Batch of 2 targets.
Target 1
Amino acid sequence: MASPKTRFACSSCGYISSRWLGRCSDCGEWNTMMEETMGRSDSSPRKDNARAACPINHIPVVEEERFATGIQELDRVLGGGVVPGSLVLLGGDPGIGKSTLLMQAASRVSLSGKKVLYVSGEESVQQVRMRASRLQIGDVPLYLLSETDIDLVEESIRNVAPQLVILDSIQSVCKRDLSSSPGGVGQVRECAAQMMRLAKTEGIPVFLVGHVTKEGALAGPRVLEHMVDTVLYFEGERHHSFRILRGVKNRFGSTNEIGIFQMENEGLKEVFNPSELFMTSGVSDVTGSVVVPTIEGSRPMLVEIQALVCPTGFGTPRRMTAGVDYNRVSLILAVLEKRVGLHLGGQDAYVNAVGGVRLDEPAVDLAIALALTSSFKEKPMAGRLAAVGEIGLTGEIRPVPQLEKRIMEAARLGFSICVVPGGSGLPPVVAKGMKVAGVENLEQAIESALRF
Ligand code: TYD
Ligand code: MG
């Protein structure tokens, strides 16, 4: 039986229960309840007087001053730099490059004359020093500390008085008063709370690194998302060198910006021109390849979609996707079958976004449909072509947001035709040297896109 000072917390949603449960009664996940020991319970009544509430327009507006890390892709995702006193969580799979990114940011900030403390609970200072030399940032006045006791970390921070703290990682530090092991929900939550108090009272921005596995099984980061000001995820495919930094929550900026990096031998390099990364060299006569101008945050980015359609050997047709939504592809196949009359029932279909990027917006529908049709009919595109549009169940092409930006990006990269939703919002200006073809339904789109 659990002692009265023990409780159980769900590592997925943070639900608290006094007894162990096989399945969390809040989020329904199995085997997520972790035991934690409660610290000193503060049962003494509060002595200080309650603060008076005041009308919102009596509170002076103070512009929060930010400072740049010098890594533009990171600054943009943060909403324009680091806010003093903010707590930022950087999550991601192990080995994706979190330590590398923050090490590079730390060195840039310390080069700009600010004091930065990098606390590593996972590596010795020698190991961190070795990574720094590999990143060619050996000679910066950056403070290093290898420590796993959160109280000693706090003491060190107070001694050094830095203007930026990086704690790598939150799972590796622990509080001695708590009996549970490092990395447990209780420990992670308690340590993060301590860092938050420090950040808020001293006005020092703190970056926490958190490891997450694909299954989200590892205790920690999920329960932290509620506490911190900003949650960033660093993601990428293991077999590709590029990495995407995504904002999931941001109290000081928008969350739809992304930062793109490429992992190289000397660390992460910023990618300012992502369009060139996600297209093959542009053999125009192949079938099953269409480029789509997508928008990530405020930036347009051209991505090549490839499809392969071939007769099924036996049994049920196989459908496979990489980088695009599986269900979306099934829906597009059904629309092509029913509205355009393509007999795809006995065909295997494979759809892939080049470069390992993940595309979520429905605006890529039309490119997927055209790539599938092109492969099925063995017809290439009519020129260097880009296509964008959402497909409805009746086969109509629906408008997409920020169309003009997408068209301009395609024109900038030398495309000769851009197939776009024709119903409304077609920009009157035609981009230089590029034909903009507005289409209303899938049949029209196939007509104007494929070379028959
Ligand atoms: P790391 O930052 O240690 O990952 P995380 O902190 O997220 O666990 O990065 C580890 C990977 O990055 C490792 O597989 C090696 C690779 N890497 C490079 O390719 N180039 C570099 O300059 C560095 C420092 C790491
Ligand atoms: Mg690391």
Target 2
Amino acid sequence: MTEARLEAWLDETRSFAPSADFAKHANAQPSIYDEASKDPVAWWRTQADRLSWSTSPTKTLEWDLPFAKWFSDGTLNASYNCVDRHVEAGRGDKVAYHWVGDAEGETRTITYAQLQKFVAQAANALSELGVQSGDRVAVYMPMIPEAVITMLAIVRLGAMHSVVFGGFSADALSSRILDSDCQYVVTADGAFRRGAPSPLKPAVDEALQSCPGVKAVLVVRRTGGDVTWVEGRDHWWHDIVDRQADTHTCESFPAEHKMFIMYTSGTTAKPKGIFHTTGGYLTQVATTYNLVFDVKADSDILWTAADIGWITGHSYIVYGPLINGVTQVMYEGLPDSGGRDRWWKIIAQNKVTTLYTAPTTIRTLMKWGHELPGAHDLSSLRLLGSVGEPINPEAWMWYRQYVGGNRCPIVDTWWQTETGAIMVSPLPGITATKPGAAMRPLPGITVDVVDNEGKSVGNGEGGYLVISEPWPSMTRGIWGDPERFKETYWSRFPGKYFAGDGAKRDADGDLWLLGRIDDVMNISGHRLSTTEVEHALVGHPAVAEAAVVGASDETTGQAIVAFVTLKLSADEAEKDQSGVIEELRVHVSKVISPIAKPRQIILTPDLPKTRSGKIMRRLLRDVAEHRSLGDVTTLMDPTVVNMISGLMDEHQNDND
Ligand code: PRX
């Protein structure tokens, strides 16, 4: 985010007073901020009572920086908290999910009582396959109810799930399976995307060629058709799960029992296995879901339009909503499966009250025109949410006007895989909102914006976002690498968690998130590291060197621009530029995922380097965004960057 862009945002700043309708019935009162700040740790202990504990915790926080324990002497079962307790309380007939398939008209309705039976059967099946407490199970699935059932069954047994987004490649899947030593995989034969089957099982088969430790693969039949089968290793869900008893008595585990791993990109080529534990994570997802979305469990129909392959799906499709006992819409397809007004139909048909999505999707829907939402009855909506990247004021205002009918508050929620749950967000009915601002830390959360030296900045100033006090759903570390955990998050500003985001306090002291300040890119709300993509590129036999930057993009927030030098002679490369470029783009999507496919690849004979040989990405970012170049005096050969700039202009639209 450039300073000029930010100023433009701030100039446009408008403030919307808290909605009076919300204020009348809000779950929280304005006094909540003061109550929590008096003693945040004690406040979190009261929030933990949202859960059903087998042993109520007497301890709250034990803090051995940077390692936290929350509620450590309490015991509970995550799956019981999400499902069984609602059935036991007589709410078994309440709908947990209105599942909407990719194809119009394909729906499934699952009540809490049904979910309890499905989870019990899946837990019994996983036990039969050998899954035990402490094991890791990889989940590589489409957005079907079995994905949620699988996650709940895994944690019910005290095992950990490591959900890998179904869009990731076989290579990405195998490296994640290996890193956390998963012995089991749950998958499907395929997924549906805009009516067409898209296979998943072949990627699992390919991945497992390099994962000899995997003992069993459980496969849901979703798309039909032939699949390759490894006898003894592969099991159909309908063969093994459906015949199980539909009751399962669960064990309780300590609050700090490890619950799941979620891989995310950092600044190196190797994704980090961020892991979370049970009691603190569940407490904060339950609390934040309730307060930020002002949940009315009896009347709301909430839709988090995300994939369970990301942390948003974990926290706000699975755990937060189920603990709160709400009814949700879960959607399998793409925004334009069956037509560009599909989302609006889903909202109207299901009378959705709360929609939570990412700015990149809002911008896409915006491009398709406000006539589409205008043609449907969206009057059931009462609250809108945004997550995953900074939301630009244009998109915010469009969302407010054309989706929210100027009556729904918008909660812009800042958080990360590492934070586990929402950290910065307005509270509807209590906090004012501004187009593009995440406003203020939630009750019980202490964040700050600091300068290079770690000193708090004043109002109207920018700096780095840090979290100053431990919070219940904080990651307990990087799988297998405690040193990297300390180094990545806790060394830049001693004693404080460094999020990697730039932020600014406006004149009123409200928070604006400005995007990553490290080598992490945010492509359509998906996190990718520049090094990860560079690593994939140099893995191609024709590539000598690669430098990757995230350049601003109107729809996807950022897009990948790669500068590549080839091992081929200039003549050879010249002959078939577009062929090489396309091959490299396909190569990256195969190694990582189609999400990582560069928007543009510029073939260049050289890259701009400092005299010590470091590639100057800052300059390449300027080039990619067609800005005038900053200081080039430290370059080994200043002419290189001008040459690249020329190439960029020449090929500006070649790769689109
Ligand atoms: O840069 C921030 C951006 O997304 C990053 C976290 O990505 P991930 O771990 O994949 O989690 C995304 C979903 C929680 C952050 O470091 N980000 C997330 N939400 C916002 C945001 N940037 C600005 N505003 C937000 N509301």
